[in-house]
Specification:
This protein is of the alpha+beta class. 30% of the residues lie in helices and 25% in strands. A hairpin with a 2-residue loop joins strand 11 and strand 12. It catalyses: O-phospho-L-seryl-[protein] + H2O = L-seryl-[protein] + phosphate; O-phospho-L-threonyl-[protein] + H2O = L-threonyl-[protein] + phosphate.
Length: 420
């Protein structure tokens, strides 16, 4: 279980920091950043800052083949994984979700290729068949919401298997989970899939005024929203306490704010809501249906010439900046380093709320820093219409993943490693 070794404490043999090249980004105290890079569909900027004692956020950018068998299936994949209860689930997603997506896309391509033979044969019988064939080929040219949903499902099932296999040794794994925000750009189509309360915000140009307006493309799953509470109550009509208000915060069973996630197995499968899991995690009452869901909300968006960029970020950013504030900053700033500037802007706001200077906030070490702001991960992707029409294989592949390598205590170096 290499990912487990990379996520657990300072005693781990993986606990020594790894040197990061410029290609893989740079460090500045608890801040890591990759100011800019090219992807199949344009450019990106990425940054993350640690606040927790163990970094629970993970970030990922992949660009190139989206299938293990079809080299023409090219695109860009972005992932933001905001863990809770520990880093293990976010680490697992970072290591497995994209591979599952490529595998599911390959399987879908094989099925579609077989079906296309039958559809093509139908064209000899009817002109209508050719219409169906053309539409079918277009719809399945690259990616689909179904492929993404199956990749999420495979990732959830894989992590449940890890929890089951480690149950006697590390039962606390059952109480670790992660939000999961994914963006896939392929053939001019943007897919946004989300579990939890991370957020994807599009910047769209208004031609008449020149303004760039914020358009949120992700649906959030947090019990603070009335419609989310209503959804929970509708799916658990026999449980009047499925959501509980405590200290002015709505939580599922009084425990957790998010209502969809990867992991949190003790709230999904009753066989893990028992000893040897520590009593502080366990529910007193049994449950028959999963209390949380792992089914992502997926938005499919055809990219328009007026769509300039999209911001993917964990809720640590959105706790400090509004959608429009973030979009305004991206629009008015140079592309290079914009993710880092967004993270720093959020930190400035966090310091301001506590009536302290940003320079003093930066001196606060991880762990204590969590009292001022959350871990923050930001990835900005700029759309390039020319890149979308250029042969994808003429642009370099990118694989950049961050997070989860423990280091010595009492240092300001972030618990992250980026692979490029």
């Amino acid at each position: 279980m290499d990912y487990l070794r990379s996520c657990w404490g300072p005693g781990s043999p993986a606990g020594r920091p790894r040197r990061l090249s410029d290609a893989a980004g740079r460090q500045e105290g608890l801040l890591w950043y990759k100011d800019g890079g090219q992807v199949v569909d344009g450019e990106f900027s990425m940054a993350m800052v640690q606040a927790n004692n163990l970094l629970e956020d993970q970030g990922q950018v992949e660009s190139g083949p989206l299938s293990t068998t079809e080299p023409d299936l090219q695109g860009t994949f972005v992932g933001v994984y905001d863990g809770h209860g520990g880093p293990e689930t976010a680490c697992y997603i970072n290591d497995h979700l994209f591979n599952h997506l490529r595998s599911k896309a390959s399987t879908a391509t094989e099925v579609h290729a077989f079906d296309q033979i039958a559809i093509k044969a139908s064209t000899m019988l009817s002109d209508l068949g050719s219409v169906h064939y053309a539409r079918f080929a277009s719809e399945h040219k690259c990616m689909s919401a179904d492929v993404i949903r199956k990749a999420f499902q495979a990732t959830e099932e894989g992590f449940i298997s890890v929890v089951s296999n480690q149950w006697s040794l590390r039962p606390q794994l059952a109480a670790v989970g992660s939000c999961c925000l994914v963006g896939v750009v392929c053939s001019g189509t943007l897919y946004v899939a989300n579990l939890g309360d991370s957020r994807a915000v599009l910047g769209r140009l208004v031609r008449g005024t020149g303004e760039v307006l914020a358009m949120q493309l992700s649906a959030e799953h947090n019990a603070s929203y009335e419609e989310v509470r209503q959804e929970l109550q509708a799916s658990h009509p026999d449980d009047p306490h499925i959501v509980v208000l405590r200290h002015n915060v709505w939580r599922v069973k009084g425990i957790i704010q998010i209502t969809r996630s990867i992991g949190d197995v003790y709230l999904k499968k009753p066989e893990f809501n028992r000893e040897p899991l520590h009593s502080k995690f366990r529910l007193q009452e049994t449950f028959r249906r999963p209390l949380l869901s792992s089914d992502p909300a997926i938005t499919v968006h055809q990219i328009q010439p007026t769509d300039k960029f999209i911001i993917f970020a964990s809720d640590g950013l959105w706790e400090q900046l509004s959608n429009q504030e973030a979009v305004d900053m991206v629009q008015s700033s140079p592309r290079n380093g914009i993710a880092r500037r967004l993270v720093k802007a959020a930190m400035h706001e966090a310091a301001k709320k506590r009536e302290m200077r940003y320079s003093d906030l930066k001196k606060i070490d991880r762990g204590v820093r969590r009292h001022f702001h959350d871990d923050i991960t930001v990835i900005v992707v700029f759309f390039d219409s020319n890149a979308m029409t250029t042969a994808a294989w003429s642009r370099p592949s990118v694989s950049l993943r961050g997070g989860g390598v423990p280091i010595r205590s009492n240092t300001l170096a972030p618990l992250s490693v980026l692979q490029s």
